[in-house]
């Protein structure tokens, strides 16, 4: 009888651990990075009203489409956009975008421009001319998983190549591919045209192929797209350094909300290098 009770308890514990792991794997609102502009605006100004209006429109649109952009009707011309992983349900997009806006409110309070990338969505606002422009700057990159080998690297390269070769997806920018035991996916921001999206995915795939060696998992976020790969049973990531040319500064934040230390190059932060402080 005691043996049966112990077996049931062990089974229940295992089920709970597996459930917790599954929920962790599906943490669509998990934090990746954020960037905030150096410029500031004051409370009660027209600019403040425009930012609120644009971000409210972003939040209200998320339940209905994986991508949208909005421009304020005033001369300030505040622009905002969001992009969700377009293979996920609308409910996931809605929750992710609202979480991203909350992150922006706390990390980039009163900044004239800001961006935040969560696991399943990206939100950006500002008064610069980023809408519709290509941006293949590396903002965040890391490689990890269990040690691999040349065969695994070849499958990774093939899976990433499938992303680049895929026909431009209609109305979503999401691509998926695989080779052997390696899977890959990518997502472009919806303001890019088909060719610009393909070029961005190609640049992201090149970063992963060149920078991840025999790692069995990796991800890289560029200004207008990101790509990931993982092998079955690859495990988690280890943190890695990345370059950044976002035009935001001096505040950027990395995974888990860690403060990122910046090496400033030039007066306009056109080339920022950063690393994540390890906070366990």
Can you walk through the features of this model?
Residues 29-130, 134-234 form the Gnk2-homologous domain. Pfam families: Stress-antifung (PF01657). One of its GO terms (cellular component) is plasma membrane. The chain is elongated. Helix 2 (46-61) runs antiparallel to helix 3 and helix 4 packs antiparallel against helix 5. With 280 residues, it is of the alpha+beta class. 33% of the residues lie in helices and 31% in strands. The chain has 2 domains: 31-131, Killer Toxin P4, Chain A (2-Layer Sandwich), CATH 3.30.430.20; 138-238, Gnk2 domain, C-X8-C-X2-C motif (Killer Toxin P4, Chain A). A 6-stranded antiparallel sheet has the order 2-3-5-4-1-13, with helices on one face. A 6-stranded antiparallel sheet has the order 7-8-10-9-6-11. It starts with a helix and ends with a strand. The protein has helices at 2-25, 46-61, 90-107, 150-165, 194-211; strands spanning 31-36, 67-71, 79-84, 114-118, 121-126, 138-147, 174-179, 182-188, 215-222, 225-231, 237-238, 242-244, 251-253, 260-265, 271-276. The protein contains 5 helices and 15 strands.
């Amino acid at each position: 009888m005691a043996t049966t009770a112990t077996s049931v308890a062990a089974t229940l514990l295992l089920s709970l651990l597996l459930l917790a792991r599954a929920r962790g794997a599906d943490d669509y609102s998990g934090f990746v990075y954020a960037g905030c502009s150096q410029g500031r605006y004051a409370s009660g100004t027209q600019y403040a009203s425009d930012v609120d209006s644009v971000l409210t429109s972003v939040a209200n649109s998320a339940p209905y489409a994986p991508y949208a952009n909005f421009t304020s009707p005033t001369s300030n011309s505040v622009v905002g956009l969001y992009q969700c992983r377009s293979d996920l349900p609308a409910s996931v997009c809605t929750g992710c975008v609202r979480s991203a806006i909350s992150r922006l409110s706390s990390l980039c309070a009163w900044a004239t421009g800001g961006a935040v990338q969560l696991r399943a969505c990206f939100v950006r606002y500002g008064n610069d001319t980023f809408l519709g422009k290509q941006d293949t700057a590396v903002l965040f990159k890391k490689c990890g998983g269990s040690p691999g080998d040349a065969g695994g690297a070849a499958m990774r390269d093939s899976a990433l190549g499938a992303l680049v070769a895929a026909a431009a997806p209609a109305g979503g920018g999401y691509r998926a591919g695989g080779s052997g035991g390696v899977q890959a996916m990518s997502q472009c921001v919806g303001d890019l045209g088909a060719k610009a999206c393909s070029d961005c995915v190609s640049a992201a795939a090149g970063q992963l192929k060149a920078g991840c060696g025999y790692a069995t998992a990796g991800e890289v976020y560029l200004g207008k797209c990101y790509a990931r790969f993982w092998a079955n049973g690859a495990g988690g990531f280890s943190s890695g350094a990345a370059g950044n040319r976002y035009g935001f500064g001096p505040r950027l934040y990395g995974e888990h909300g860690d403060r990122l230390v910046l090496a400033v190059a030039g007066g306009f932060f056109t080339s920022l290098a950063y690393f994540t402080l390890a906070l366990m």
